[in-house]
Write a structure and sequence with these properties.
Elements: H1 3-14, H2 20-34, H3 38-46, H4 50-61, H5 89-92, H6 96-104, H7 106-109, H8 123-132, H9 139-148, H10 168-184, E1 189-194, E2 198-199, E3 231-239, E4 244-250, H11 256-274, E5 282-287, H12 298-311, E6 314-319, H13 329-341, H14 350-358, E7 367-373, H15 385-389, E8 393-395, E9 403-406
Parallel strand pairs: 1-5, 4-7, 5-6
Antiparallel strand pairs: 1-3, 2-3, 3-4, 6-9, 8-9
Helix pairs in contact: 1-3, 2-3, 2-4, 8-9, 11-12
Length: about 400
């Protein structure tokens, strides 16, 4: 075996486990043993610079640590002298961090001419923009600097709720007190809302479901509604005290009549049996401020009056302040679990929607009753002033537009 091949064999075995200093010392030792042309041969085999091997020869020829050097072989952890190695780009370019900061957040830090104001801030585009400004930098280095500066990939966070009503917290307190009062008296408290409309057909549904490898469920490549199957609107009723729910899957419009019809179904199929022993027939409803059950919707109040007359219930309603619908319990106590239950499954028919909702359960014991409401509800119905004046409606002293009661007419 030739000399070069023997050295090559040693280098192949040692290189993965040697650090910068020990590799230099080994190469210098081999070069010294080779003698003439030792530096050239080791340079050819290892790729180390000739000056590096020469420096290693000086190190092994002079015993003991050098002035200013901290050598790993003598038991220290540093390999290079303090300040050794290539200078960082932030040291080489003092204005680099400021330029990078302006590129990342131009809208908030005042650079209306930023080249990245209206484009995605990928590492490649950031690096290109910095190079255009005279900084010689790669996208990989940009990523390292951003990580060191505390930047990371972030998604949008839904926290802004618009202008806060000055009585927002007081309304939450009022809702809480009313809920406690009803529960202490053994009376029902329900949270209501309509879930977003869903396309019926072979459409993609968010989430993942376990399937055989390489055999995902195939769905349409577009989301144009099927004119035959149409859409459905699940309207939910969540019993806050019993952890039970009811969902009416409507095939028509999300109107106030549809909302109250869903409450009527819950009461007659479940509610009146759960609360048959309450002394006074009362019901408390938590509702959002807008939509089919909004506090300004006249048809909502008229439909509640009809339901009150029919059921004999005195119905109290507490609306959440504008922009706070996410605090409505039905959103995170029922609707979120329905979405989890049908994740990754195409809603190919109305029956599939009903069955998936009805089979939604949780470890805390959530149970949901679901039905298909195939009635056609008309949009745009108006309620005359004369009808409104006859409602047996009593407004609370605190924000009567949000808090009111409707009792059976004639009571």
């Amino acid at each position: 075996m030739s000399l070069v091949k023997r050295i090559q064999r040693k280098y192949t075995s040692l290189a993965p486990i040697l650090n910068e200093q020990s590799l230099r010392i080994w190469a210098a030792t081999e070069a010294r043993d080779v003698g003439r042309r030792g530096i050239a041969i080791l340079h050819e085999v290892t790729g180390l610079a000739r000056s590096t091997i020469s420096f290693g020869l000086k190190e092994i020829s002079t015993p003991g640590p050098k002035k200013g050097a901290q050598r790993t072989l003598s038991g220290t952890t540093r390999i290079r002298r303090v300040g050794g190695g290539a200078k960082t780009l932030t040291s080489k370019y003092p204005g680099l961090l400021d330029a990078l900061d302006l590129l990342i957040a131009p809208a908030t830090r005042g650079d209306p001419e930023s080249p990245l104001r209206w484009t995605s801030k990928s590492l490649d585009k950031i690096a290109t923009a910095l190079c255009d400004q005279g900084f010689k930098i790669s996208s990989r280095t940009v990523g390292t600097i951003l990580n060191d500066q505390g930047y990371s990939m972030q998604a949008n966070k839904k926290t802004k709720e618009g202008a806060d009503n000055p009585d927002r917290d007081a309304q939450f307190e009022h809702i809480n007190n009313e809920t406690k009062r009803f529960h202490e008296q053994g009376k029902p408290v329900i949270s209501i809302d309509a879930k977003k409309k869903e396309n019926i057909g072979e459409f993609a549904n968010k989430g993942r479901e376990r399937e055989p490898v390489g055999k995902p469920t195939e769905v349409n490549g577009h989301d144009f509604p099927d004119k035959t199957l149409g859409k459905v609107t699940p309207y939910g009723i969540y019993d806050v005290g019993k952890n039970k729910g009811s969902v009416s899957v409507g095939i028509s419009h999300d109107t106030a009549e549809f909302a109250v019809s869903s409450i009527d179904y819950w009461w007659n199929s479940c509610g009146k049996f759960e609360y048959e022993h309450m002394e006074e027939k009362e019901l408390l409803i938590h509702a959002d401020c807008g939509g089919s059950n909004g506090y300004r919707v006249r048809l909502w109040k008229q439909a509640l009056q009809d339901f009150s007359n029919k059921s004999g219930l005195r119905i109290s309603v507490c609306h959440f302040p504008p922009g706070t619908s996410k605090w409505n319990k039905i959103e995170h106590q029922m609707f979120s679990f329905i979405s989890m239950n049908w994740r990754g499954r195409p809603l190919i028919s109305r029956e599939v929607v009903v069955n998936l909702i009805a089979n939604t359960t949780t470890k805390s014991g959530l149970k949901i009753d679901a039905r298909l409401d195939d009635k056609q509800y008309q949009k745009g119905l108006k309620v005359a002033d004369e009808v409104m004046s006859k409602l047996n409606l009593e407004r609370a002293s605190f924000h009567g537009e949000w808090n009111y009661s409707i009792a059976p007419q004639g009571s």
